[in-house]
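User: Could you check the structure of this?
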Amino acid sequence: MKHTLVITILIIMFSNGATAEEDKRSINESTTNMIAALQQKQWIHGSQDCKNNQDPAIEVFQYDESSYVLRQNKCLSYEAPFIYVLIGKEKILVVDTGATESAEEFPLYQTVQSLNQKHSDNGKTKEREIVVIHSHSHSDHYSADSQFVGQANVTVVAANNTGVNEFFDFEKWPDQQTNIELGGRSITIIPTPGHQEEAISVYDPQTKWLLTGDTFYPGYIYVKTWQDYKNSIARLVEFTNNHSVSAILGSHIEMTNKAGEYYEVGTLYQPNESSLLLTPSDLTTLNEKLQQVDEPEKIAMDSLIVEPLGALPKLISSIAKWFIG
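Assistant: Sure, the predicted C-alpha cells are below.
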C-alpha cells in the first residue's frame, strides 16, 4: 500500500512538473512569436506622391492583449514618430503624442479612447485615467498634447523639466528610477538625458519592452550633451543586464534594411525600412564604442548612427526650450 501511494505521488509530481514546463514553453513560444511579428512588421511608410496617399493618419498595431504601437503617417510628418499605448486596469499610459496638433488630421485622442472602449467590460465605458508622458521634449513628440489637455480623467505631464520632475518626483536625477502604477501593471521610468535634457526611457515588465524614445533607435541620433548620453547608455546597459528585455523600441525608423544606410532628413517615402526593433546586444555594442572614445565623435553602426550636435544646433535647441518652459 505504501509503495502504491509513493508511486502515485511521484506520478502526480511528474505530471505537474511536465505541465508547468509545457506552460512555460508555451509562454516562451508565444512571446517569441509576438516579438518575431513585431520585428518583421512592415509599417506604413509614406508615398512617392503624398497627395494620393490612402494610408490612415495613425497605424495601430496590437502586440498583446493590452499593448499597442502606433505610427504616424509620414505624409503628415516626415518624422513619422511611434507612440506607445499601455493599458492597465486603472490607467492608460500614452508615451508621446506625435508631430501633428490637429485632431482632424491626426485624431490621436479619439484613437486612444477607442482602445479604452475596446478594453471596457461588456462594452461599457470604464473610467480609466489616461496619463500622457513624453520620451523627451522635442515637438514631434508632444504636438498632439492639446487634444488631451482639458479632457475628463486625463493627466498630461508637461514636456519640460518642471513637469517631469514634479510628476515623477525625482530627487536624484538622473540616477534614480521611479514607477507608474497602471493597475496590475507597474511601469519603470529611467532618466536618460543626452539627446535632450529631459529624456526618459520606459520599461514595461508585461511586454518586457524598453522604450527609449530618441535616445536609442534605428536612425541618425544627434546628441546634445555627450557625457550625459554616455552615462545614459551605460545606465540602460546595466538595466538590461538586470531585467528581462524582449525588445528595445525607439520613436522613429530612419535606417534602411541595408546595414549602415539611412534615409535623409525630410524623406516622405521609405519603402525599405529597417526593423523598429533593436536588442540589448545592439545597446551593449554602442556602449562599448562610446566608452572607447574620449571626445565626442561620430559612431556608425549597422543599425544606427550617433553624432554629437554642433554648436549652432545646440544653441537653437536651447532657445527652443524657452518656449516650452
